[in-house]
Amino acid sequence: MINESSPVQTMSTERQAERGDEVMQRLTRELERGRSVADDSRIGEAASWAVDKASGALQAAALYLRDQAAAMVARPIRRDPVRAVLIAAGVGAVAMMLVSMKVRSGARTVERRVRG
Predict the structure, then answer these.
(1) For residue 28, is pLDDT > 80?
(2) pLDDT reported for residue 20
């Protein structure tokens, strides 16, 4: 098992909550002071920066989870490749059987309408 820390876990949730509270308090104080429109753009930039950071963290977490899932799937395939091929062939055969049954049932319905 890989002992890497998740990119999402780089900062503890308590610290993230404290940091979020600090930012909200600072923004509230600035708004109460009646800042000018130019300062409002700074708030917009800060919000944009926060959204960019959050989306980056989510993308990193998704990449990390995808890599972990791929590793978990690849491990059993490496250990027993014959079984993996047989399972894949069985799933493919069942899928083709279901598709062919669906196609045939649709053809019969059309044939009955034409004759009847």
Answers:
(1) no
(2) 74
